[in-house]
Task: inverse folding
């Protein structure tokens, strides 16, 4: 059987895909990427993302991303709860109303961006993070976490509000932090950053952590692998098409091949292992089997 891959984190609703979204998905499918998990980042995107997931038969998550917390309001949390409740309600058939909802996310904390580290904004980030963890508890949903210079604070929140695991997206913390996330039922997401030879610590993590703890992601259109990365000056020039600079889910198998090389295993081992791992931490993804 041919290899099957799942992109555990991909923003297909981003405007970078507005002109050719269907072709991007078809290209990924041709490379063996059988599905993508699309996390929301802000309340105004919830309903369009749900519609897109249905139209293109992809999985999705709903949540408020820490980078969008500055403009978020408490009423956005009420709307999130309303959308989750609607998606998780039972239809007349006894099945979930929307089986494509697989997690609450993308949520978390970002202490890399200076403006988000100001005391008031840090407090607001933590308020939204804890409120959404409580929601994940209520609805028994795994969470997709944004982790950027915030692993210890995220773990503190998870100790206070135990959730059903999930994915620590774009993980680049310490081995101790990694093992703590794993003990709490999380898989760790690795993507394009792994392909850069200078990413020594990240490559050590991806090589030495248990394979059962790893999932693959693109974060498309962001975090491009080295073969499509453009410098800031190149991105600002008109020497190339914008679509050539964006990341896409079709790049996932090649990213997986880099991981296979680092771990000295075959591509098929990485494909099957990360596929199973993603379904384990996001159990609703079982529909990708059909």
Result:
């Amino acid at each position: 059987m041919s290899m099957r891959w799942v992109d555990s984190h991909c923003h297909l609703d981003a405007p970078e895909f507005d002109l050719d979204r269907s072709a991007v998905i078809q290209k990924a499918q041709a490379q063996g990427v059988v599905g993508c998990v699309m996390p929301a980042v802000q309340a105004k995107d919830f309903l369009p993302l749900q519609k897109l997931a249905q139209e293109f038969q992809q999985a999705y998550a709903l949540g408020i991303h820490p980078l969008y917390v500055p403009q978020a309001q408490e009423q956005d949390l009420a709307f999130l709860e309303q959308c989750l409740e609607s998606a998780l309600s039972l239809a007349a058939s006894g099945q979930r109303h929307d089986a494509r909802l697989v997690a609450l996310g993308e949520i978390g904390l970002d202490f890399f961006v200076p403006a988000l580290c100001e005391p008031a904004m840090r407090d607001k980030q933590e308020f939204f993070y804890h409120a959404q963890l409580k929601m994940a508890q209520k609805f028994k949903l795994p969470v997709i976490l944004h982790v950027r210079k915030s692993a210890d604070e995220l773990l503190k929140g998870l100790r206070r509000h135990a959730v059903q695991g999930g994915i620590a997206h774009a993980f680049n913390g310490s081995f101790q932090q990694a093992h703590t996330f794993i003990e709490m039922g999380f898989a760790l997401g690795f993507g394009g950053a792994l392909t850069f030879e200078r990413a020594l610590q990240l490559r050590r993590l991806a090589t030495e952590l248990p394979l059962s703890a790893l999932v693959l992601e693109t974060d498309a259109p962001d975090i491009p692998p080295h073969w499509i990365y453009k410098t800031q000056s190149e991105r600002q020039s008109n020497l190339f098409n914008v679509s050539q600079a964006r990341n896409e889910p079709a790049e996932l198998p090649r990213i997986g091949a880099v991981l296979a090389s680092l771990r000295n295993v075959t591509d098929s081992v990485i494909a099957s292992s990360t596929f199973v791992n993603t379904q384990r931490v996001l159990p609703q993804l079982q529909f990708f089997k059909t």
